[in-house]
Amino acid sequence: MAGSLATPAMAQTTAATTTSTPARPTAGQRQAAEALLNTIYTEASFNQLIDSGLQVQLKQHPELQRFEGDMRDFMRKYLSFNSLKPDLVAAYAREFSEAELVEITRFYQSPAGQKMATKLPTMMAMGMELGQRRMQEHLPELQKIFSDKVSSHEDHLNK
Question: How far apart are CA 18 and CA 3, in angstroms?
């Protein structure tokens, strides 16, 4: 989830500001990563992502409808912004230099970046739903691939 958020911002970086990141992030990288995350995310935006993901799951598995509230509470407990933030800070600090993090943050502070941050949960949910729908449409093809492979393996064993 978090890694995909930096992708549009990376288009804003230039070769001049791209530097390699050390194996152990500096305090400056961690601070810049936290500033970026605080610019991009809020607890409410994470809750929106959780709710969108949950709705996709419930569409796929309607039998889970009766557990919707429990699932939402569980996901918000363990997948909330505040619970994931330390790990996200570490991940961003490992992947980007301090200069890159500052530049990405500047992008997200711009009007286009703010719009991106606002629209991203909806766009991600649409992408997840599109992917699920595409998988469902082509599931018979995948099942045939599996079936053919199992048959081929069984034929090989019977020789």
Answer: 17
